[in-house]
TrEMBL record:
GO terms for cellular component: membrane. InterPro entries: MFS_trans_sf (IPR036259), POT_fam (IPR000109). It is found in: Membrane. It is a multi-pass membrane protein. Its main location: membrane. Pfam families: PTR2. This is Uncharacterized protein. Keywords: Membrane, Transmembrane, Transmembrane helix. The keyword Zinc does not apply. It comes from the Eukaryota. The chain crosses the membrane at residues 33-53. GO terms for molecular function: transmembrane transporter activity.
Amino acid sequence: MFTLAIYTGSLISTCLMPELRHSIHCFGRDTYFPLAFGVLSIIMLTSTVILVCGKNMYVKKKPENNILTRIFGCIFGNTTEIPSGQGRIYIYNGFDCNVFVQSKSLHVQHQIGPLDMFNVSHTVATQNVSGDVGVVGITIGFETKCSFVSDNYEFNTTLTIIKGKEISYHLTRLNPNIIALNRVGIHDNLVKEKFGNPNLRILVDHTFDYNDNITLADVDHNSFTSYSLSLFRGMNFNAIKTGKYNVFYNGIMLPTPTMDIIPAAFYTITLQRNGNFIGNLFCGL
Ligand SMILES: *[C@@H]1O[C@H](CO)[C@@H](O)[C@H](O)[C@H]1NC(C)=O
Ligand SMILES: *[C@@H]1O[C@H](CO)[C@@H](O)[C@H](O)[C@H]1NC(C)=O
Ligand SMILES: *[C@@H]1O[C@H](CO)[C@@H](O)[C@H](O)[C@H]1NC(C)=O
Ligand SMILES: *[C@@H]1O[C@H](CO)[C@@H](O)[C@H](O)[C@H]1NC(C)=O
Ligand SMILES: *[C@@H]1O[C@H](CO)[C@@H](O)[C@H](O)[C@H]1NC(C)=O
């Protein structure tokens, strides 16, 4: 279409210009340059004006979201028991790039991959302790590929550790301007539901609307259940039914592989949409 327009244009001008030259006197001049360039300029200006005027009528296509899929191994078994006297921290990277965590107190220097998760267990220090609660400093750094922050951006923050508990932190955007290591609830409440149902929580950033819905479509039973995202507002665990599920967000299937949800397990889905729309699934018992 574009090419056709260009060739048509050049054909018309080739034929039209000599015609104009013969029929119009060139503003009293001998050359026809003012005519040739003048006519072109006027036509160009007119077309620009037409283009700008029609601005509101164009259908602007958003660039298609590039959908990535990653598979996470689910860890089941009794390996997740916290050593006595220690507490455990989980850090979920809510960004589609590598981040670095560094903490002298935790003896941690680690890279967390895009939308990946990292955990560390640590003795609750005797200093800065009130009861079984300790606070440690941590530095979060972003690789250059993280284009939403300036190069080598880092910030310092603190983590709370509770003896015998697991606390999750979600590195995410609280609003367009604030990136934070957001504590997920008071601590992970991994109490098995009395009917042995599995549990699910969903970690989202500020771009998600609590009116949105998450649908779990059971591939074996051809049934589906929709949950409002507001159910996960506190980022707490909610009981779901066992089954093999595909996950849909507002009717769009997420790139997570089919989730095999088994009884009494705890699952975490992180959703983010930084140009890419990604869902990741973590699970543990
Ligand atoms: C986990 O603990 C249960 C008993 O609570 C035991 O039967 C099972 O073998 C243990 N699994 C592993 C992987 O250690
Ligand atoms: C926690 O980290 C250890 C290694 O530091 C790893 O073996 C374990 O699988 C992790 N736990 C979970 C639930 O990811
Ligand atoms: C205890 O916490 C205070 C501030 O909350 C900090 O200045 C101090 O360095 C901490 N001490 C230790 C040993 O971590
Ligand atoms: C973070 O803390 C470290 C020391 O622990 C310091 O060297 C660094 O400059 C701090 N970074 C920021 C951004 O405040
Ligand atoms: C979920 O969202 C989609 C798209 O907004 C909508 O078509 C569908 O009806 C919603 N489902 C429920 C159960 O609210």
